[in-house]
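Q: Protein A?
A:
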Amino acid sequence: AKAFIINTKGEEVVIGHLRENDYFGEMAILFDIQRSCSIRTLTDCQFLTLKKSKFDKYLEVHPSVYKILCK
């Protein structure tokens, strides 16, 4: 998958690539902000989605995960 933004000229700019077992969207869910880029898959993929309320409960039980994600 590729991570991209649309620049001020309306052009797609690739800012990174995701591989198997990578994750994305963590900053938006952690800090309740708009996502910083979009993702487009290049092959068939499976995704796991989390509701913010469940993710917040998980972080309460596993606070070390918060520190890892914020690095």
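Q: Protein B?
A:
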Amino acid sequence: CSIVRSSPIQHLSINLHSSHSKIGKDGGDVWLSVLGEVFDVTTGRDYYAEGTGYSVFAGQDASPSFTTGNF
């Protein structure tokens, strides 16, 4: 299970399947995962939502790119 940090004090357990649908489609939430932690990046939808420059990371494990710098 991964952790969503929706606020500094709230943690929710989620599974990998539920993160795949969080790509910002139709105004929905946008999540991305790095090193086993899932982050709600909905406030950055201009960057991460479907159809934007970093949308490849939405709903995915972005660890390889963020740890190696190979985007």
